[in-house]
């Protein structure tokens, strides 16, 4: 079975969020199950591309509106990621440094999808399944079925994974002229509320759609930024499959990025040493419990609550250290700078994303805070558990599926309502547990024994592919 994963992110080439981690790991695990899994993403002017050897395996051209676009397919020679990687390069469209934030994103992703289909059709490539990830490639299933130039591919099965239903790729119908030729009688499959909506189109046209947790699938039936009715109507082909983590990369026992390696037996000493090194560097006290936040400064992640949470927390409890690693909303960032000044020596910040530092923070921290408004799956809590860092999470989406409160014989601290008071109460419970060495060791041991690797989830995707092919 040949499966092509189509995405605009893939770790370590181009990462903005969890989408990249999924696309960079799932195909590798599927290949261990005998699946010929490959990844196709846009070409980016990034270090990985410059540092690895690629060969051009195909080239072609197509019209997009009044433009004639040339494309090249670059294949990484060594399969260093554990699967074949292909990059689509289009001068002026797919040859940039950043993944997002350009004003012509709609044109970029239309070109990416058109070039992909043009390439596989004209080179006799007939995959069993095309697995599309998020709205950037949401038009693929529609174009396979109703694009006049891709009839030879019409029987190809498609799976579409919703990583975040809040972002849908809306574009004006004025962009319709840029699409590959299609049966115009089917225009309604592209439309949602007067706009071309790639996410809605994917849900309508794909053979199956998945979400990155069961909890998030159920939430989309209730609220999906206007598409909840569509998710309900198409519920028969919806599946919730929780993400996994790449335990070859996220594993404190073999992690080359952390200062002191450890396992579930040596976790106490290992964490102690990693904490000491991190705290010395950022002027924090290593003898206190360390609570961290890693993520985007976005309301979706509950980052706008961090200021209020930590002000309230410090008003009732001073014996702790806080580390915040992230970037995003400038207003949130400025409020966090105020926090750092207000609680100098107790709270440290790092603005931006640093992969090495992220590993070190997981290894050094005692708790990880995730006060999310929306969390389709969440990977941070899974990384944290692997490193014996106890998650403090809001009960939402994938967090609800993967973190069980210690009050229910679990291994984390969960709060229901989205407010600072409930978050502070959950943090307080974690600090109480931390103060009892025997209790804390039991919680940490339970956390590190959990298996959230991709093995189980990869099998579920393969089962879905087989079901569609039958």
TrEMBL record:
Does the keyword rRNA-binding belong to this entry?
no
Question: Recorded E.C. number(s)?
Answer: 2.4.1.21
Positions of the Starch synthase catalytic domain:
3-232
Q: Which GO terms label this protein's molecular function in UniProt? A: alpha-1,4-glucan glucosyltransferase (ADP-glucose donor) activity; alpha-1,4-glucan glucosyltransferase (UDP-glucose donor) activity
Q: Which GO annotations describe the biological process of this protein? A: glycogen biosynthetic process
Give binding positions for ADP-alpha-D-glucose. 15
Q: Name one Pfam family in it.
A: Glycos_transf_1
| CDD domains documented for this protein | GT5_Glycogen_synthase_DULL1-like (cd03791)
From the UniProt record, list the reaction(s) this protein catalyses.
[(1->4)-alpha-D-glucosyl](n) + ADP-alpha-D-glucose = [(1->4)-alpha-D-glucosyl](n+1) + ADP + H(+)
- Which residues does UniProt call coiled coil? none
Which pathway or pathways does this protein act in? Glycan biosynthesis; glycogen biosynthesis
Q: Which residues form the Glycosyl transferase family domain?
A: 280-432
Glycosyltransferase listed as a keyword = yes
Keyword annotations of the record: Glycogen biosynthesis, Glycosyltransferase, Transferase
HAMAP family listed in its UniProt record: Glycogen_synth (MF_00484)
Function according to Swiss-Prot or TrEMBL: Synthesizes alpha-1,4-glucan chains using ADP-glucose.
Q: Which family does the entry's similarity section mention?
A: Belongs to the glycosyltransferase 1 family. Bacterial/plant glycogen synthase subfamily.
This chain belongs to which protein, by name?
Glycogen synthase
- Please tell me the species this chain comes from: Sphingobacterium olei
Lineage per the UniProt record: Bacteria, Pseudomonadati, Bacteroidota, Sphingobacteriia, Sphingobacteriales
């Amino acid at each position: 079975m040949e499966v092509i994963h189509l995405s605009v992110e893939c770790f370590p080439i181009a990462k903005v969020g969890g989408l990249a981690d999924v696309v960079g790991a799932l195909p590798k695990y599927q290949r261990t199950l005998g699946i010929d899994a490959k990844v196709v993403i846009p070409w980016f002017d990034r270090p990985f591309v410059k540092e690895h050897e690629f060969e051009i395996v195909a080239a072609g051209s197509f019209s997009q509106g009044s433009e004639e676009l040339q494309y090249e397919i670059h294949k990484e020679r060594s399969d260093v990621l554990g699967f074949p990687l292909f990059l689509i390069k289009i001068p002026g469209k797919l040859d940039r440094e950043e993944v997002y934030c350009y004003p012509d994103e709609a044109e970029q992703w239309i070109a990416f999808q058109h070039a992909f289909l043009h390439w596989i059709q004209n080179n006799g490539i007939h995959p069993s399944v095309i697995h599309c990830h998020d709205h950037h490639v949401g038009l693929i299933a529609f174009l396979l079925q109703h694009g006049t130039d891709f009839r030879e591919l019409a029987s190809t099965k498609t799976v579409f994974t919703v990583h975040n239903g809040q972002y849908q790729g809306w574009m004006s119908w004025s962009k319709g002229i840029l699409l590959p030729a299609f049966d115009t009688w089917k225009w309604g499959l592209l439309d949602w509320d007067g706009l071309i909506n790639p996410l809605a189109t994917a849900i309508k046209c794909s053979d199956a759609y998945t979400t990155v947790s069961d909890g998030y699938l159920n939430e989309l039936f209730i609220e999906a930024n206007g598409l909840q009715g569509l998710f309900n109507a198409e519920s028969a082909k919806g599946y919730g499959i929780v993400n996994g983590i790449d335990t070859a990369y996220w594993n404190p026992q073999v992690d080359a990025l952390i200062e002191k390696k450890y396992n579930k037996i040596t976790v106490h000493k290992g964490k102690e040493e990693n904490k000491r090194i991190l705290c010395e560097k950022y002027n924090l006290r290593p003898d206190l419990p360390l609570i961290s936040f890693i993520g985007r400064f976005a309301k979706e992640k509950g980052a706008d609550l961090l200021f209020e949470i930590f002000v309230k927390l410090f008003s009732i409890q001073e014996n702790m250290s806080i580390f915040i690693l992230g970037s995003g909303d400038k207003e949130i960032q400025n409020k966090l700078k105020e926090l750092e000044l207000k609680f100098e020596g107790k709270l440290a910040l790092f603005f931006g994303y640093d992969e090495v530092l992220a590993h070190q923070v997981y290894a050094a921290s005692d708790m990880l805070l995730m006060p999310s408004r929306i969390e389709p799956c969440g990977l941070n809590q899974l990384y944290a558990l692997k490193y014996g860092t106890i998650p403090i999470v809001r009960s939402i989406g994938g967090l609800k599926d993967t973190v069980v409160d210690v009050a229910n014989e679990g291994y984390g601290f969960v709060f229901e309502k989205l407010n600072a008071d409930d978050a502070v109460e959950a943090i307080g419970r974690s600090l109480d547990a931390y103060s009892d060495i025997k209790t804390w060791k039991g919680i940490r041991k339970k956390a590190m024994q959990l298996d959230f690797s991709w093995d189980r989830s990869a099998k579920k995707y393969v089962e879905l592919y087989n079901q569609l092919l039958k």
